[in-house]
Amino acid sequence: MWKLLLFFTRFYSPGRFLRFLSKTKGKLHFLPKLLAIFYCIQDKDTPKLVRLVLMGAIGYVILPIDVVPDFLPVAGWVDDAAVVAAALKFAAAYIKPEHKEKVRRILPFAHCDW
């Protein structure tokens, strides 16, 4: 499990994440959650283990080759959404209200009630 997580963290970087966002153009329904994860990674109060898990989650989403390839309509993003949901559950205690507020500033109509 940890080796797989470390594999996906190699694909995470803030620049790669921002390029990914520009390519998806907000088409992902889990984009607010993905942004909250990004802000949690940036927070210096987030423990290293939690950051590692969150980086692995974003790395998995960024990588186009995964369990269900992203180019498949609808189904291609289901596994990515599941990874994001699991990462949020793991890091729930570290997603601060200010992370959600940053998401709301970027995506004013985002529902951040998770």
TrEMBL record:
DUF1232 domain mapped to chain residues: 51-85
Indicate where this protein resides in the cell: Endomembrane system
What is this protein's name?
DUF1232 domain-containing protein
Which coarse location class describes where this protein primarily resides? membrane
This protein's GO cellular component annotations are:
endomembrane system
Does this entry carry the keyword Disulfide bond?
A: no
Q: Which Pfam families match?
A: DUF1232
Membrane topology category: Multi-pass membrane protein
Query: What keyword terms does UniProt attach to this protein?
Result: Membrane, Transmembrane, Transmembrane helix
Per the record, the domain of life is Bacteria
